[in-house]
Amino acid sequence: MTTLVVCLDRTDDVGRKTGLRSPIVGWEAVRALVTDVGLADPEDSGVNSLLESLRVAQSLRDDDEETVVAVVSGDRDSMVSADRAVAHQLDELIAEYDPDSAVVVIDSAEDERLVPIVESRVRVDAVDRVVVRQARDIESTYYLLKQFLADEELRQTVLVPIGLALLVFPMLAMRFGAAEGAAAITTVIGVFLLYKGFNVDDVVTALARRARESLYTGQVSVVTYVVAVGLTLVGLFFGALGASSLDDPQGVVVPAMQFAFEGIPWLTTAALTASAGRLLDELIREEEIRSSYLNLPFVVVSVGLVVRGFSAYFLETQDVIGPLIVPGLNFGWRSFDAFTLNPGERLAMYVLGAIFLSVVGVRIAASFSGASLDEPEFEGSERARRDRERRADPERTDGGPRTGDGDDPQSGRDQ
User: Fold this and answer.
1) Given this model, what pLDDT does residue 234 score?
2) CA-CA distances (angstroms) from residue 24 to 70, 74, 149?
3) Average pLDDT, whole number, for the chain?
4) Cis bond leading into 297, ω under 30°?
5) Which of 162, 262, 317, 353 ranks highest by number of CB atoms within 10 Å?
6) What is the pLDDT of residue 70?
7) Is the pLDDT of residue 304 over 80?
């Protein structure tokens, strides 16, 4: 009966500190590895795991069992590659030594995630978890604090906010009071925690990188985005100006509707400008424009019409704005008198116009992209690929190579 005593190292600490490639098999090889790892990093708990593997193997040998002691390490690139590397090394060990069972030695919860991989290949009789006993005295506490202070990232994340809070709180307490100072400090700490929790710094860095790349590559959307930001500010200004010009606003519904009524034309124009810039970039860069970019301007205008119509309906029912008067038209052979729309008719006109525009956008996007409304074309699908090839070569209908008119099959051209 052969027992495999395997020490698992998911993050490849052994290979990183000694430069050796795993698996490392054999009593002498593992004992020499203990010395190498201990000299490289005496504080590493992996030394204790290696010693425990040797101890378990020696104990099984004393019971007249044939043992094979080995160290299996993962990969530092990612957790998936680490697990696959461990699985590959275990397959090699099992194929060479054909063990009947295994004893797994681990020293962390990270390494314990590899136990199911071992269990899927050989029977696991025991899992030995190595826990290093630490001295609980003043010297150990001082050593841990020293290590904590040596970590620059952890020091900036923890100590800097605490130091600023202790520095600012007395000044706020003296100026505004203890309660106000505590509330201000708590708010700032909460904002900082949310900032770190949502990785806002990574998002800002990614946006800055994309903006820099857009500037260097000369994309049209850079200019249109800037114009869209300016139009958005204008829309917010006119919306706020319209809401503040109400004589006797009651509640928040009427001011909100007035804000939407005044600002939505500018905001819609801003969104339309941004989408137009993105559409031009796709038109310049791609041979075929995706239907979503073609349909986006129509959707933006349709949504703007719906919001404008509902806000006008509420404002007209509250006598904030007057009714909509459609002017008369004279075509020479036929004339139309002016007429007034009531709030319901006005809303219906906006909604119908939005629906009409959205349908027109769908039809235009479908016609330009070559897709059918009954059978939508999904980018990257097999049907889309065949349709594109069929449009490029109308004579090809069976998906196979098209041959020429002659009898020689070599005269055809493969698609």
Assistant:
1) 93
2) 5, 12, 36
3) 78
4) no
5) 262
6) 92
7) yes
Nearest to residue 324, comparing CAs of 307, 312, 335? 312
Query: What separation, in Å, do the N-terminal and C-terminal C-alpha atoms of the chain show?
Result: 61
Are 150 and 113 members of one domain?
no
Residues 163 and 67 in one domain: no
Report the number of distinct structural domains present in the chain. 3
Q: Residues 13, 43: one domain? A: yes
| CA–CA separation, 371 and 350 (whole Å) | 29
Kindly state whether residues 218 and 342 are assigned to the same domain.
yes
Tens-digit pLDDT profile for residues 4-29: 999 998 888 888 888 888 888 999 99
Q: Is residue 400 part of a domain?
A: no
77 belongs to a structural domain? yes
User: pLDDT, tens digit, for every residue of 43-72?
Assistant: 777 888 899 999 999 999 988 889 999 999
**Residue 215: domain span:** 210-376
- Say yes or no: 83 and 193 in one domain: no
How far is the C-alpha of 86 from the C-alpha of 75, rounded, in Å?
8
